[in-house]
Write a structure and sequence with these properties.
By secondary structure, the protein is an alpha+beta fold. It has 7 helices and 5 strands; from the N terminus they run H-H-E-H-E-H-E-H-E-E-H-H. It folds into 2 domains: 119 residues, 2-Layer Sandwich (Alpha-Beta Plaits); 40 residues. 65% of the residues lie in helices and 13% in strands.
Length: 218
C-alpha cells in the first residue's frame, strides 16, 4: 500500500514536469520557425530587390558618371509651383533637377568613387546636374530661391564641398580663359614683331650711313 501511495505521488509530481518540458519545447520550436521565416524574408529581399529600385539605382549611377557637374542641394517647404519654376529656369540652361530617395542613393554609390559624398544625403535633398560645369549659372539661379541651398557635389570628376563649389563658381569660364590666353599670346607676338622690325630698320640705317660715309671719304 505504501508503495502504491509513493507511486501515485511520483506520478502526480512527474506529470506537470513533463507538461512543462513539452510546452517549453513547443515554444522553442515556434521561436526557431519564426527566426527561419524572418531570415528567409531578409535573404529573399537581399537577393531579389524590386525592379523599381534597380532602375533608380542605375539612373543614379548614370547621373554621376555621365555628367561633368552634379551638385547636391537641400530644400525645404517648396510647393509645386516653385518646383516647376525652378525646373523650367534651370532647364533653359540645360541643368536638370531630379529627386532620388536618399536610402537608394547611398546604396547605389556606396561602392563607387563618389562614396565620400554620401553624408550629404541625410536630409531632404535634390540633385542638379548638367553635361557642362555650369556652376556659376546654377548658383546665380539658386540665389533667387531661398528655400534651396547647395551642400556639395562633384565637378569635372573632383568631389567638392559647399565652399569649394562657391570658389569654383568665381573662376572665369573656360571660353573667357581661352580669350585671355589668346590675347596674351597675340600681344606678345605683336611686340616681338615690332621689336624685330625696329632692329632691322636700325641695321639698315646704320649700314646706309656707313656706306655713305665710306663713299665720301673715297
Amino acid at each position: 500500500m505504501a508503495a502504491a501511495m509513493l507511486g501515485n505521488r511520483t506520478k502526480s509530481i512527474g506529470l506537470p514536469f513533463v507538461a512543462s518540458i513539452t510546452k517549453l519545447k513547443l515554444i522553442c520550436n515556434l521561436s526557431n520557425m519564426a527566426a527561419r521565416c524572418k531570415a528567409g524574408r531578409n535573404k529573399l529581399y537581399k537577393v531579389k530587390p524590386s525592379t523599381r529600385k534597380l532602375m533608380i539605382t542605375e539612373e543614379i549611377r548614370n547621373v554621376f558618371e555621365m555628367n561633368n557637374m552634379v551638385i547636391v542641394c537641400q530644400f525645404s517647404d517648396m510647393n509645386t509651383a516653385e518646383w516647376e519654376d525652378l525646373r523650367y529656369t534651370l532647364g533653359k540652361d540645360e541643368i536638370m533637377v531630379k529627386m532620388f530617395p536618399n536610402k537608394i542613393t547611398c546604396k547605389a554609390l556606396e561602392n563607387t568613387k563618389y562614396r565620400e559624398i554620401l553624408p550629404l544625403f541625410l536630409a531632404a535633398t535634390v540633385v542638379t546636374y548638367s553635361k557642362e560645369a555650369k556652376v556659376k549659372t546654377l548658383l546665380t539661379e539658386l540665389k533667387k530661391q531661398p528655400k534651396m541651398g547647395i551642400l556639395g557635389g562633384k565637378v569635372d570628376e573632383k568631389l567638392l564641398s559647399r565652399k569649394d563649389v562657391v570658389d569654383y563658381a568665381k573662376l572665369p569660364h573656360l571660353t573667357e580663359q581661352n580669350g585671355q590666353l589668346l590675347h596674351m599670346v597675340t600681344e606678345h607676338s605683336r611686340r616681338l614683331t615690332t621689336l624685330l622690325e625696329q632692329n632691322q630698320m636700325n641695321l639698315i640705317t646704320n649700314l646706309t650711313q656707313y656706306v655713305t660715309e665710306d663713299e665720301v671719304k673715297s
